[in-house]
Amino acid sequence: MKKILFSAIAASMFAFGFTSCSPMDSDDHSLGGSPVDPSSLSVSANVSADETGQMNLVTVTNASNAQSDVRYFFCLNGKTLIETSAGASLTQIVKKKGEYTAQLYAFSACDQQVISTNFTIEKDWIDPNAPAEPEGWMGFTNGTDLLADWQPEYSHWFSPSDWSGGLDPGLNGDIHSGLTFTIPEGTGSDQWQAQVHIQQNGPTLSAGKNYDFSIAIVSGADNVKATVKPQKDGDDGVYFTADQFALHKGVNVIALSDVAGFDGQFKIALDFAGAPVGTEFTVSRVFLSEHDDANMAPFDYQDSKNLLNGQAFGNDFRFWFADSGWSQIADPAYEGDNAAYFSVTIPEGMGGDQWQGQTHIPFDNVTLSAGKRYNFSIVVIADNAVPGLTVKPQNDGDDNQFLSADRHAIAANVPTAIVLTGCPRWHTCWYKC
Predict the structure, then answer these.
(1) List of the chain residues with pLDDT < 70
(2) Residues sharing a CB contact under 8 Å with residue 288, sequence separation 6 or more, in sequence order
(3) How many CB atoms are located within 10 Å of the residue 129 CB?
(4) Which tens digits make up the pLDDT trace of 314-354?
(5) DSSP at 364
(6) pTM for this prediction
(7) Which of 251, 313, 342, 385 could cross-link 336 (Cys pair, CB 3.0–4.6 Å)?
(8) What is the DSSP letter of 412?
């Protein structure tokens, strides 16, 4: 059965901490020992399913023949070594998709040899124990995401109030699965004293094009701010915005639509100064595309100007579902009774024509006025594709008076914002979805 949720509200690669990857330089045979026999060296890497069924488990095997007085080391990240022995294996979960190299070093007292093998991880690993991503709009989705395969470098600069730096927020993860960090003890409260930089290897943008950008930030505290600065890598004077955005506890989505581009590579600078010590943040869902008219952020449900904020469904809330012959069928199961959240499960036997699955939601305490213009938005999430969802904000007493009655295609499991702007009361208006 299809389940549709309506909401007005606009969650690493493995590392080895071993000895430094510093191969011997000396080939002075006067040190004693025997040269390493390269023909006896062999290393393999096999990718298989882990206990969750995901193809992210790599087993690296030292298939070398044992040699007297030779020590073996795996190097799996290009930086660190871990000692192994002939015939031994090392197994790890690799969380990020990509191409990887496993190296095997062999050292004797007077010689060193290194061989390598490559392996591929096809998909990012998903933690089955992670909490479900919050339901609601999670950023732009239309157009080609220029950051989908971005493998940036991550850095930070956290400082006490004296600007001396040196504090460590414990960056962990990445922007695709979630980059997490915590405000450390002693962090200052001035802007730019809690910096996170996501840079290098970014797409090259053009000054002659406009772009859409969004990013999701999960905050562990209310009443904090984040500076979000999508910018040119290498020139912090060129950027989309450098504004501070108010965050509430939970998911916050910052979205910029139709902003002018620049010539150069893309990076993201963030700052969280002023947040309480111990506050954890997670950054994810980064998105960047050339401008697409379908990318438009929903209005903030929590905004004090939102006429529907906190409004319960009125007394005439009802369904009218019919089969393909227009005979009424049983009402669907549903959850929610206010403008913040409503979920409905499509019942068996519903017909496929427009108006054969009607839901009527009146708001008894909300009255519009002639001569004024209104903005309206709704976020829709469906667990199956919906070819035509009709959204009709209208006069409760006259269904010939409405802001819009358009049908919208909804992709499966993609939070979709349907936004109407500048609507005169009971006249159709311009929309994006």
Answers:
(1) 1-32, 130-135, 426-433
(2) 145, 146, 147, 203, 211, 212, 213, 230, 266
(3) 5
(4) 999 999 999 999 999 999 999 999 998 899 999 999 999 99
(5) T
(6) 0.62
(7) 342
(8) B
